[in-house]
Design a protein that fits this description.
With 221 residues, the protein is mainly alpha-helical. Helices cover 93% and strands 0% of the residues.
Amino acid sequence: MDRRRLGTALLAFGGVGLVLAALIAAGLVSGAVAARNLSDRLETDQAQLVAMLGRLDDTVDHLASSTDNAGQTLRTTGAVVDAVGTVASGLGDTASKLSSALDVSLLGQRPFAGAAGSLGTVSTQLDALGTQVTTLATNIALNAEDMDEVARQVRQMRQDLATVATRIEEFDRTGQVVGLIVGGILLGGLLVAWVGIGAAFCAWVGWRLRRLAAADAPSDG
C-alpha cells in the first residue's frame, strides 16, 4: 500500500474516531449534568416527603385522639342508656304491681279495672322498652371496644409512619450514588480523551502521509 492510500485510511480512521469521541464526550457531559440535577431533585423530593409525612403524623395523632374521645363517649352513653333501661324495667315492675293491686273486687264490682288494665299495658311496654334499651347499651359497649381497637391500630400506624419518616430523613445514600455516577462519567471522559488523542494522532499521521505523497508525486512523474 502506498503512502497516499495509507494516509487516507489513517486520516479517515482518525476523523471517525474524533467524531465518535466528540459525540461520546457530549453524552458524558449531558449525563453529568443530568446526574447533578437528579441529585438536586431527589434531595428536594426527600425534604418534601419528610414534611408531608410530618403533616400526616399530626393528622393521625388527631385521629387517634378523636377515636379515643369517641370511645369514651360511647362508654358514657352506654352507661347512661343502661341506666335508662334499668329504670324502665323498674318502672315496668312497679306498674305491674300497681295493676295487680288495683285489680280488686269490691262488692262484686271492679271499680279500678280500667286503670289496672292501663297499668298492665304500660308495664308490658316498659318491660319491652327496658329490654330494648339494655340491648342498645350492650351494642354501644361493643362499639366502644371497637373504637378502642381502631385507636390502637391508628397509634400503631403512627409509629410506623414515624419510623418511615426517620429512615427517609436519615437516608444519605443518594449523594453517594450520584457521586459514583459522576466518578464513572469522569473515568469515561478520561477514556474518551485517550481515544480522542489516538484518533487525532492517526489523523495527523494520515494527513502527513498524504502531504508527503503529494510532494513526491511530481518527482515520480
